[in-house]
Amino acid sequence: MDQIEQEPDFIALSRQFKATAMELISVLEQKQKTGGRTKVLLETVPVHKLADIFVASFEISFEEQLSMLDSVDVKVRLSKATELVDRHLQSIRVAEKITQKVEGQLSKSQKEFLLRQQMRAIKEELGDNDDEEDDVAVLERKMQDASMPVNIWKHAQRELRRLKKMQPQQPGYNSSRVYLELLADLPWQKASEERELDLKVAKECLDIEHYGLEKVKQRIIEYLAVRKLKPDARGPVLCFVGPPGVGKTSLASSIAAALGRKFVRISLGGVKDEADIRGHRRTYIGSMPGRLIDGLKRVGVCNPVMLLDEIDKTGSDVRGDPASALLEVLDSEQNKTFNDHYLHVPFDLSKVVFVATANRIQPIPPPLLDRMEVIELPGYTPEEKLRIAMQHLVPRVLDQHGLSFDFLQFPEAMVQLVIQRYTREAGVRNLERNLAALARAAAVRVAEQDHSVPLSKDVQRLASPLLDGRLAGEAEVEMEVIPMGVNKHEISNTFRVTSPFIVDEAMLEKVLGPPRYDDRETADRVATPGVSVGLVWTAFGGEVQFVEATAMVGKGDLHLTGQLGDVIKESAQIAMTWVRARATELKLVNAEESNILEGRDIHIHFPAGAVPKDGPSAGVTLVTSLVSLFSHRRVRADTAMTGEMTLRGLVLPVGGVKDKVLAAHRYGIKRVILPERNLKDLAEVPAAVLSGLEILLAKRMEDVLDHAFEGGCPLKKYSKL
Ligand code: ADP
């Protein structure tokens, strides 16, 4: 032994063994707080014996014990012992780590459990019984009452069973519950009772709520008549098309009233995502049902009148095409099993009466348009607006502001002034807004005046002794008793204003500001040569559009501004070419000077510069403004025009004639130049408007020019070109 102890190998081995053993002992010491004796052993006992003692105390396999006994060489035994001690040390460490982890988890769930117990105790103490379990029971009852079809009931049951197995804190619990709530809330069978449809009553109902619109009302009555004869008839979906504020929405709600059904409006403006119609699949976080299902949930019956508002404002992009989803909705064959992605079970939409509204027909995809019957509402003449205002808007506005005719009166002449000076729209929405502004101003004055209104005699008699008493500082008055004789009616009388306000011109200016429009506008704008008045068609109905042309030194270029589209730009080029080709005949240039553009550029501008414009119907207006510019003659201020022009000078018919003529009438224009082939469209224009206008028909551009200038156009005979 003495010899071996001197060997460097042995010294190294024993040092390693001691270090490992020391480590093991300190770990054990930490765990069991005993180890003092073993530490002493480590210092006193020779290393080779120590190895034997350690190994003997471990639980090792039979083979390992054998191999230990088998190693007679001290060094070999020492190295084997070191290995064993190290293994033991590692296993203790791993075990320790695991226990730490488990302990952490345990304490967290224990904490939660404890808190939950406390919460329950607090709730019980407060008498708050909305326990999760109760909630589920309520939900189940609601589902039973929802009278779902059998297959859907089975599906809902499956989902409910899943929900019952889940813990409220578990992810997915909430979404599952919200889903089941929707299933329970949807009107699977619940329908509002349809009363026997009386067409006379329906007609009265439409007449009471809407002035004029005879043709539209007639069409609605026809629609209702068919429904009466064949309740399950799958007639086309009505689609009201017209500028804002012409009564599309309120007509739809009148249909609902006539049918005795509930009314729900679904706004489709700006819907670009198919999921807005059809819903998101439930796998997405925050998924929702589509707007239709949501609307049905809101309205609570399966047979409402559903208004698909602004159906022309849906667009398609990468997220799908809402129009194709709408196709399914409006198709009576397919909508029996409408499939909402969120709902995941088919819903029967066939009992819903769909009505749609749109500002324009063009943006509606043709297949969708094919399923609808378009009813156009062109906009109102000032006379119609006046009647609507006097019969419908004024009473409604007064009512909305808590006023009556006793407080405020709108003379007809003043309403007419509001129409002429402050609104220039096809519908009546701005008019209603302006009337509301006047009513608000009057309401302030009435409310202010309340204090100065003399009290009725009874109340004076009652008030005076009390008041006198107070003033004299007598005994305290605890309660003011109003005698039985002074009933409510008399009290309200005490607030009566002695004389009602009558809206006058001064009030108009004060509340609505200086007049926004006047009939002189066109005259002012066409005061210089180069400006002509066109009629265009926009989503807000017809509009008057000025075209300005000017010339400056240049190289013969044509500049166009005013946010123009390709079609209108081409129209400008055609106009320029036509004028250049006939410059001599039109006496725009001397015979020797053949090029009208010699040394000059032409700039054509369409105000308002911020509004995008396109379409071919400005052709004749462009030519007129160019001829006016080159001939230095002013265009007649009382004349507006519309029409597409071919390169050869033929005037082609255009769309939206009715709206355009109404717009001209609104602007106070007296003469309108129209393409000859649009004559048939005039049948739709109200006679009252036509009687105030001189309609001039044009077959060729020369006719237009002849009508547009005072004293006609020099180009009498038609060009040979
Ligand atoms: P739209 O849906 O066409 O934009 P609304 O139906 O909302 O227009 O109508 C705007 C307002 O004008 C409503 O208060 C409506 O009652 C009123 N209105 C429109 N046309 C008429 C009419 N012919 N008679 C009575 N009120 C009308």
Describe the structure.
The chain is α/β, with parallel strands linked by helices and 721 residues long. Helices cover 50% and strands 11% of the residues. The protein has 28 helices and 18 strands. The protein has a five-stranded parallel β-sheet, sandwiched between helices. The protein has a four-stranded mixed β-sheet with strand order 10-11-13-12. A three-stranded parallel β-sheet has the order 14-17-18, sandwiched between helices. Strand 10 (531-538) and strand 11 form a beta hairpin. Helix 25 (619-631) packs across helix 28. Mean pLDDT is 81; it is low at 451-495. The structure holds adenosine-5'-diphosphate. Residues 210-213, 244-250, 357, 388, 392, 427-429, 432 line the site of adenosine-5'-diphosphate. Residues 1-89 form the Lon N-terminal domain. Pfam families: AAA, Lon_C, Lon_lid, LON_substr_bdg. Keywords: ATP-binding, Hydrolase, Nucleotide-binding, Peroxisome, Protease, Serine protease. This is Lon protease homolog. Its EC number is 3.4.21.-.
Compact overview of the structure:
The chain is α/β, with parallel strands linked by helices and 721 residues long. The protein has 28 helices and 18 strands.
Which key terms come to mind for this protein?
721 residues; alpha/beta; 5-stranded parallel sheet; 4-stranded mixed sheet; 28 helices; 18 strands; 11% strand; binds adenosine-5'-diphosphate
